[in-house]
Amino acid sequence: MAKRKLFDVGTERHVAMKMRDGVELRADIHTPNTSDKLPVLLIRLPYDKSAAEFQAYQLPEWYARHGYIVVSQDTRGRFLSGGNFRPFHHEAEDGVDTIEHCARLPQSNGMVGMYGFSYAGQTQLQPAIHRPKGLAAMAPAFTADGMYEDWNYKNGALHLAFVQWWASYLAIGEASRKGSDSDIRAAMDRFMGICQRHDWLPLGEHPSLPKKFSPFYEEWLRHPTFDAYWRAWSIAHRYAEIDVPALHIAGWYDIFIDGNIRNFSGLAEGAHSAKSQRAQKLVVGPWYHLPWAQHTGQLDFGEAGRNHMDELMIRWFDFWLKGSRNGIMKEPRVSLFVMGANRWRHANNWPLKRTRFTKFYFHSDGRANSLNGDGSLSTRRPGNEPHDIFVCDPSYPVPSMGGQSCCLPEFMGPHDQREIEVRNDVLVYTSAPLVRDTDVIGPIDVTLHAASSAEDTDFTVKLVDVHPDGPAINLVDSIQRASFRDGNENPRAIKPDEVYSYSFRVGNTANRFKKGHCIRVEVASSNFPIFERNMNRFMPAGDGGNRYGGYRDMRVARQRLFHDAARPSHITLPIAPRR
């Protein structure tokens, strides 16, 4: 960033802002020492206004030095703010009231921009639906288009590791407000040990998530389908009500990457006004949820992969809040980090124009189990081929290794998958070595023709980049619960041993498969603990998270995957045009 005038900054702490129901929320206000009227930057978060998501951004004082009044607010029921904390429930109304309060600050010029990632992305999107006076731009980062899909559930399966980690983290704050020192210490111990107890059953009776300090965990489990509870916070069907420029920031290994992209695409196509539709930008780096750095998981993406979002956001808000002619809106609206090539690629569309959506079919002689098997992957349609057979044993699930979860390092980012691929309950389909560099950039879909001996089960898919010297690096993965095959609202059991077609989105990525590398797809029935285990039983109406029961409810299922002329299981890869 070019050198610019920097201001000295004064800070007023714990300023009370009264909401419409009388509850007071507390904020720190950082104001440049100038008599000029200035725009306001607002971040609202449940993670302590003093820290202000320092893991990803510079602190508010840094932004204030650049000529902004910066307001950092504790959301309702967190840290110094009044009221009771219920995740998501008050963010729309509290956000509207806070934005309007910021616009009326004595030194404010009436224009407010919002920023923040994860939950602080939702504190932007939820009030934006109501088009509050003063909100002129936002930068929702690493966040979804609602709280059901990608946040708590994925195609019917609970996002177990993230939900339990997050609930146990939030519980520390609840214990701090409602308990004793010993309660706080106990909550901290439970949080530090949650990864050793992901296998606890029943889900709703987890000893690390006591109802006194984690009531929201039980609440989320009581709503395993996309019902009215989740619909209240869904952005996806309300894009037309949002009328504000937005800089969408995401990471390829983030848990919310798909929702982030849906937000960009949904607003670019259907925001309230044509002006706002044109004012959507998307930036996706090689990062997981936090921190954003060039070294992610087991890979180093080089200098180009470093976090440069602070400088970008200053340009973004300078343009929309200060009228700076810095050219940012003349630049391509989509910026993508292409892994493998380790460089940025810019375009005006997502997916990229002239992308060839190419089907890669699964093949084998009936023994694709593990790296020792005979599974292959090619663009040739299958003929008369025998199906593959594997087992799903919930007492012995396929372990998660890297991926798109949060927020434990072992469940995030790129990792060598060979330790998993030696298992016989993982089908492995690998292409021949590529004869040229191949850029896969865009959404990835899969169609599985499969049968199970169970009345419900899961199928998981993972796309992998196989290096010539051996490492098999995961790019993107997903899960499909069989009973949710027709959507997230009305699950239905499957008939044992009947063949069904399961088509679902694996995810989004941008990766250069270099010459000599191989493309690999793994198919299994578990990815634990990123996703909960399926007991291979259909129990949709359980209470308090016990819908899949306890250890005695586990059933072993025999799975069959078909890849013949009539049932050609395949993955569809977006092959981007060469530059």
Question: What can you see in these coordinates?
Answer:
The chain is α+β, with helices and mostly antiparallel strands and 579 residues long. The chain is 19% helix and 30% strand. It contains 11 helices and 27 strands. It has helices spanning 60-65, 91-103, 119-128, 160-178, 181-193, 215-221, 228-231, 257-270, 274-278, 309-322, 418-421; strands at residues 9-18, 24-32, 38-45, 69-74, 108-117, 135-141, 153-154, 157-158, 246-251, 280-285, 295-296, 299-300, 334-338, 343-347, 356-363, 376-378, 388-392, 403-404, 412-413, 427-430, 438-452, 458-466, 472-481, 500-513, 518-524, 557-562, 570-575. The strands form 6 sheets. It has a 10-stranded mixed β-sheet with strand order 1-2-4-3-5-6-9-10-13-14, sandwiched between helices. Strands 15, 16, 17, 21, 24, 26 and 27 form a 7-stranded antiparallel β-sheet that branches. A 4-stranded antiparallel β-sheet has the order 20-25-22-23, with no helix packed on it. Helix 2 packs across helix 3 and helix 4 runs antiparallel to helix 5 (181-193). The protein is globular, with a radius of gyration of 24 Å.
